[in-house]
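CORE FACILITY INTAKE
Project code: CF-77B
Contact: R.S. (postdoc)
Sample description: multi-component assembly, three entities in total
Requested service: structural model of the whole complex
Turnaround: standard
Below are the sequence entries exactly as provided by the requester. Do not edit them.
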Amino acid sequence: MLERFPYGRAPLWLLLVALASTLAVFVTQRLDAAGRPDLTFATSAANHMEAYREAAALFERRRHVRVSVELVHSRALQTRLQNAMLAKSPVPDLVELLFGDIAYFTRGPLSDVGLVDVTDRLEKEGLKSRLVESRLSLWSSRGRTFALPHDVHPVMLMYRADILASLGIDPNAIETWDDFVALRSKVVKDLDGDGIIDRYLIDLPVGEAWGMNILLLQRGVTLFDERGRVTMNQPATVDTVYWYVHQVEGKDKIATQCGWGQSLMKAMKDGLALFYVAPDWRTHAIEMEAPNVRGLFRVMPLPAWTLGGRRTSTWGGSGLAITKATKNVELAWDFAKLLYFDREELGRRYRATKILPPLKDSWSLPEFAEPSGFFRGQRLGEEFAKLAPDVPPDWSTPYKSRAEDRIGTVTLHAIEYFRAHGDEGLREMIQQDLTEKTAEVEALVNRNVLGKE
Amino acid sequence: MKQRGLAPYLFLAPYLVVMLAFTIYPLLNAGVLAFQQTNGPASRVFVGLDNFRFLLSDPTFYQALWNTTIFAACSVLIQLPLSMGLALLLNSGKGWARGLLRLVLFSPNLVGQIFVGVLFSVLFTARYGLVNRFLHALFGWGLEKQWLQDPALVMPAIIITALWLYVGFNMIYFLAALQSVDKTLEEAARVDGASPWQVFWHVTLPSMRHVVVFVVVTSLIGSYQLFELPLALLSSSNGRGPDNAGLTVITYLYDVGFVTGDLGLGSAVGWVIAAIIFALSMLQIRVSGVVEE
Amino acid sequence: MNPLRLFVLTLIGGALAFWLRSPKNPKPALEYLRWMALFFAASLILAPFLWLVAAAFKDREVLNEHIFFPPLPWSDKTMNLENFRRLFAGDPSVQGKVYFWQYVLNSLFVTTTITVLQMVFCSAAGFALAKYDFRGKKPLMTFMLGSMMIPSVLLLAPLYEMIVKLGLVDTYSALFLPYLAVPYGIFLFRQAMLGIPNEMLDAGRIDGASEFYIYFRLVMPLVRPMSAAFCLVTFLGNWNAFFAPSIFLHTQDKLTLPVVLNLYLGLYRADYGIFLAGTLIAILPPAMLFFALEKEFIGGLTSGAVKG
């Protein structure tokens, strides 16, 4: 029989396995637990789960309801939400979204955004003034806010304190980017004589957008304004691209690209670059993933563009939104406040995730002042909190990734031009390219007939 | 072959049911959407041909099209001959070494595309990545090459990754097809004094032609639908790469449809892509001269 | 002159040596070169897997220190089963803890069921298209081929809508029903069956066989190699499928392997250790299937020869 099974031997085996596993699945899948929970909350951040589950348990006890917290892959969550808009299918009551993901939902008329408008609630309950206001920019459209900010993500530089000390460089003396660039002669060297430079000043990317984004935001340049108009074509943009090109290319360059993951960790250990861009989430990630650089790093604010100017920027963010499909907005809102704005909770949360919350009055909690063994005893919480109020806004629109992409293209073209022609005509080339690319973004923005109010 | 009553329809019944239930509606939906701008169920605006007009005047679309076509060309012209070659080399069942080699060459398909993307993004890192280290050790060149950040190297990186992934895949189909080739015909040709290459080209290959057509057409279609791989490889830019060097038509579709949120435009892109693939497939089938039995 | 260059030169030298021994007879040299080429290809293919195996067993502390294995001797600190321990520790969920083996079972269930179903329905449909003429055949084939070309990403949203309307969200049926018969498989079987001579079918009919008998007993055994190839490919495609299951399945204990493993690759932090350990385990069932199927589509299958 085995040999004569017409489909073949292995399909037969597959059939048997299929039958067996069907039975097994029937037996092992637990029938759904008693009824639907009162609130479902979905997040894609695995490292928040622990804290969220605890908060959910607390809320369940206080309010005698059932809350379910799910971990869903960010793309799956995004797709489910998007499809739910079309199909009116069940969605979680609360969702934690990554920066940029909300833009999809805000592209049409404000009344059509599938998320609850929390602008008035924030105002009425006095929360707005307690938060770092610039963070609302990530979650707002045309003056209305649709999600609560989870974080501030102020950006600092983390640096190899040991190497800097051995070179006799005082980080406190670095106040502007000009001071920073001037360190080049001391730092950038070929250490082992093989013709390849082994030590750069800073890790900056060439093909990725975050480098330019952070610097532009620091200077107060946003790609869109709060009403969604395209504002990327500014003299400051040209200037920043010009500066950037000189730092990543040419014989006077100070930056190299260290990448992510294994190669980044190795670079940090080897001292391939001395300075790394570090928002609060990155300092935590490094601490978790690179135990072998413990005690070698410290943090300092970003050098300012002009003396006395802003010394921080921002990178990324998550936010909590309540879907309009929820049956009980008040319950969801209360849970949201517990998750994000419960002051005592936030202290413990900080200790676990090292992410600075946007609630200003929570920063005085003792957890934020704890010294970090990893960073040579620096009180990271305090350092980030000092810069937090200064974090620039970053207005979100559906076209932001396109715009960032275009800035990246301008930068790449500028680098190629610089490589071929040097400094001559570089500024003009950048301006021209920028104007072209801005027009492309505007074309896309302007054809949106639904978003016009 | 005459019509044999209801038999063919019965054999096709499961497919027809599935098609009517689950394929027709989405297709119609996508068809209607192509002429609209959307934002969820409540707001839809009929815009006629504007989506197509915009699409065909967007330089980014053409860049995506160019990238994808390069990739498809390399797939068909480099990958498939390699797969065929490997299949020929490993055809006989004798020896455990051959069996092991078959498994090894096929093994990249055992893992998912996301893993492959993650894996290769590590392998392609400058300075420390395996690829650069290997090239540097062998040729003394390429230590600092930024495969995934240099616009000129992104597509080659994707092609290399796809090569690693798929060369063993089509090999399997060719191996299966080689089983049905009539050995006596090959023997006869050899006895007649044909060289191995001539035997292959004039006897073996034509006997495999149906499967070869299948492989070429599906490779072509698959290449134009490249999406998960660049997404995983270039995750920091959502699959686009520096200067959109890794942008494929599907990534472009995803970007306009699901990131900027205009499903109408996305549908228009989908139809244009389908039309292009269709034209290419028809052309390719016609050229190979194998239309029907 | 580093070790790698030395190695390559030795290889080439070997080929030359073979050739010089008997210049008139290039066969040994060619055979040697062929094996070297295969060996080279195999090592290129295998190198990333070596990285995978090494990374799955490396302790987090040293994961980023060494590309492959840490230098010998290995201690508890450098190589251990920590990643696997965390992998098997289980995830909390609404229904209680869900353990890794549950995901493996789910994946096994989904994949084998889809493969078996598609095997049956696609071969039947392919048979109809290969060996029959009927009204509507041309348009149907054109439609089928065309439907393969629409990017599936686009069809996902309306499909999801349908699944919701049918009340099949968060069920396994959502993964089975829309994919009972797919054009890819139908096309494959059609091409495989085109080469079967019609005389054989007619002979069967004269003998009084039903159409189904012809399909099941006469034709299918002849395409066993292609059936095996199809099974393998379909199994793999579904075993590693991520997008559809991640959207249609919601409950934690229903999830399949790829969905679960990718949850560990977040945007801010990627827990490579668990991801890689899980990937390593996830490779085993398909590898076993490959070994089982290998004989089917490699030489040696006696009942597959088509005569005349």
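Facility notes:
- DSSP finds 17 helices and twelve strands in chain A.
- The mean pLDDT of chain A is 88.
Invoice: internal transfer
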